[in-house]
Automatic annotation (TrEMBL):
Gene this chain is encoded by: fabV
Reactions catalysed: a 2,3-saturated acyl-CoA + NAD(+) = a (2E)-enoyl-CoA + NADH + H(+); a 2,3-saturated acyl-[ACP] + NAD(+) = a (2E)-enoyl-[ACP] + NADH + H(+)
InterPro entries registered for this protein in UniProt: Eno_Rdtase_FAD-bd_dom, Enoyl-CoA_Rdtase_cat_dom, FabV-like_NADH_b, Trans-2-enoyl-CoA_reductase
Free-text function comment from the UniProt entry: Involved in the final reduction of the elongation cycle of fatty acid synthesis (FAS II). Catalyzes the reduction of a carbon-carbon double bond in an enoyl moiety that is covalently linked to an acyl carrier protein (ACP).
Catalytic-site annotation from UniProt: Y237 (proton donor)
Species whose genome carries this gene: Vibrio sinaloensis DSM 21326
GO biological process, one term: fatty acid biosynthetic process
Residue intervals of the Enoyl reductase FAD binding domain: 326-389
Protein name: Enoyl-[acyl-carrier-protein] reductase [NADH]
Domain of life: Bacteria
């Protein structure tokens, strides 16, 4: 079968297995030559480790100096009569193969991280593969829904402003078009449900589960990712439903920090940079900011992708051997270059100029689109996209 990119709106409907492998290999190559993580953890659980920040964290810790073994949980689709499967499914295969080549364990558990059964499965895997304990738990789930464990009904996140309607533009990757729309303010119910899905409750449930099963190693740490962004994005992000959920996550980090203090460990919310991922292109109103930010940061030489952010997080901040550097709210800041005053002043000027006619030429839309294609295994010069792919043989091959 020949696999071509199919995009509907901002969602990729296809993924190329060999291209996904290239994306994984490029990340591995990057961390091997980057500043190494010298005092990193050896047994790591990543919840949401098949793409974006979670996959980058897994790659950094396995190949970027720490030589960690990993268990990753993700919610991905394999090939079926409905389609070729999701990029994360192929990333998992490519990651495992390359980790095993270097003698590292890489266990992939596919299922719903919110469920009790997947938590039980992970505890069992920790027993089997990690001699019963983890050194680091990374929570990197981005989801639109979460089942209520009591009723089975779905909580749904709504990406909306709070208290005011907000106008913003979304860029449709499907046909490179710019759409301005008004986002209605969220109802209280929508804001509450977004906190249930994207706040800290499930992160805490994971850590509690691992404490109860005595799976926490001495010195164990846990991190989850957050975003704050500049004033320009506050109406849609920090002051909106997602921001409320992130504030909840920050508060959860404090209660988890107290719990892990019993093991001489710690918990940190880590504020990252705005980046193109499967999850972020979904946020209405954010893409004009991201294409302007990419343009300015690339020109200044300060641009980072997920992999650069994660390697720097572990080598310079979380495992640098000193006290973990945090701000006055006890957050680890990886967004310091994004929020640099000169960067933001240039981004503001550029965003003000952007419109439907000029966004592809004035800002870095090309880089944005290229990164999106790469996330799904497309746009790599060393993959022959006109060649038919035998998906079964990709999945079953051993070298
Ligand atoms: P992503 O979409 O690339 O990755 C999400 C991961 O969650 C995937 O591994 C997916 O399989 C997994 N997942 C989703 N639902 C699941 C479920 N029910 N059970 C198990 N796994 C599930 O997203 P991204 O952007 O890497 O997001 C990760 C975290 O980073 C989120 O908390 C996000 O808010 C945060 N973040 C993202 C930024 C960005 O610009 N992309 C910036 C700062 C923070």
């Amino acid at each position: 079968m020949i696999i071509e990119p199919v995009i509907k709106g901002v969602v990729a409907k296809t993924a190329h297995p060999y291209g996904c492998e290239q994306a994984v290999l490029q990340q591995i190559q990057y961390v091997k030559q980057a500043k190494q993580i010298s005092q990193g953890p050896k047994r790591v659980l990543i919840i949401g480790g098949s793409s974006g920040f979670g996959l980058a964290a897994r790659t950094a810790l396995t190949f970027g100096g720490a030589k960690a073994d990993t268990i990753s949980v993700s919610f991905e689709r394999g090939p079926s009569n409905k389609g070729v499967g999701s990029a994360g499914f192929y990333n998992n295969i490519a990651f495992k193969k390359n980790a095993e080549k270097e003698g590292r364990l890489a266990i992939n558990i596919q299922g719903d991280a919110f469920s009790k059964s997947v938590k039980d499965e992970v505890v069992e895997a920790i027993e089997t593969y990690f001699e019963g304990e983890v050194d680091l738990i990374i929570y990197s789930v981005a989801s639109g829904v979460r089942p209520n464990p009591e009723t089975g009904e779905m909580w749904r996140s709504a990406i909306k402003p709070i208290d005011q309607d907000v106008s913003g533009a979304t860029i449709m990757l499907e046909d490179d078009s710019w759409h301005t729309s008004k986002l209605k303010a969220a109802s209280n119910e929508e804001a509450e449900q977004t906190i249930k899905v994207m706040g800290g409750e499930d992160w805490e449930a994971w850590v509690d589960r691992l404490i109860n099963s005595e799976s926490i190693a001495h010195g164990c740490r846990t991190i989850a990712f957050s975003y704050m962004g500049p004033a320009l994005t506050h109406p849609i992000y920090l002051d909106g439903t997602l921001g409320r959920a992130k504030i909840d996550l920050h508060q959860t980090s404090h209660s988890l920090n107290l719990k892990l203090a019993n093991f001489e460990g710690g918990a940190y919310a880590t504020v990252c940079k705005a980046l193109v991922t499967k999850a972020s292109v979904f946020i209405p109103g954010l893409s004009p900011y991201i294409i302007a930010l990419y343009k300015v940061m690339k020109e200044k030489g300060t641009h980072e992708g997920c992999i650069e952010q994660m390697q720097r997080l572990f080598s310079d901040k979380l495992y640098a051997g000193n006290k973990v550097p945090v701000d006055c709210e006890r957050l680890i800041r990886m967004d310091e270059w994004e929020l640099d005053a000169d960067t933001q002043s240039k981004v503001n000027t550029l965003v003000d100029q952007l419109n439907a006619e000029n966004f592809t030429s004035l800002a870095d839309y090309h880089g944005f689109k290229q990164e999106f294609l790469n996330l799904n295994g497309f746009g790599f010069s060393n993959v022959n996209y006109s060649e038919a792919v035998d998906i079964e043989s990709f999945i079953n091959r051993t070298n």
